[in-house]
Design brief:
There is one protein chain. 29% of the residues lie in helices and 30% in strands. The protein is an alpha+beta fold. The strands form two sheets. The chain has a five-stranded antiparallel β-sheet with strand order 1-2-3-6-7, with helices on both faces. It has a two-stranded antiparallel ribbon with strand order 4-5. Strand 4 and strand 5 form a beta hairpin. The longest helix has 20 residues. The protein binds cobalt (II) ion.
């Protein structure tokens, strides 16, 4: 396993659509292992493969209940089958540094996906986990939380991020 660097905004790869997995081999297993190590190092609530630079339809959800636990669910080629209700809460993203904003999501979702052996599973998630899976599926479609807020808020963040990157460069 290896911890990878997280790709951050405005890297254009984050806007691209990820491709479905077709081979359930050791390469996929290694990708999932790397994603898990990267996610738990932060720790993050979830991670999409594109966030470590792989445009593949793989997402992880962090299911750990405390910091001593490293429990996750890997979903390959996931698909949201059904959405129910709405929730609005603050959301952040490892690829959008230092930013939290209210995002509207479905309160309950039914999801279908494959595991690392290629077996199909169906899941139902509510509340926080429903939010996490919708956020990560967005990543696989090239959508960031910045695409789910007002254009004014987005412009303000872009400006702030530009300044931040300029400062980092000059240091
Ligand atoms: Co994210």
């Amino acid at each position: 396993m290896a911890k990878k660097e997280i790709v951050t905004y405005p890297n254009p790869i984050l806007k691209k659509k990820s491709k479905p997995i077709t081979a359930f081999d050791s390469e996929l297993k290694r990708l999932v292992d790397d994603m898990a190590e990267t996610m738990f190092a932060v720790p993050g609530s979830g991670l999409a493969a594109v966030q470590i630079g792989a445009l593949l339809q793989v997402l992880l959800m962090n299911l750990s209940e405390n910091e001593n636990e490293n429990k996750y669910l890997a979903l390959i080629n996931p698909e949201i089958l059904e959405k129910q209700g709405t929730q609005s809460d603050k959301e952040g993203c490892l690829s959008v540094p230092d930013y939290f904003t209210k995002v509207k999501r479905a309160q309950k979702v039914k999801v279908q996906g494959l595991d690392i052996n290629g077996n199909e599973h169906k899941y139902e998630f509510e509340d926080w986990l429903a939010r996490v899976v919708q956020h990560e599926v967005d990543h696989l479609n090239g959508i960031l939380i910045l695409d789910r807020i007002s254009s004014l808020k987005r412009a303000l963040y872009k400006k702030r991020r530009k300044k931040q990157l300029k400062k980092e460069k000059s240091e």
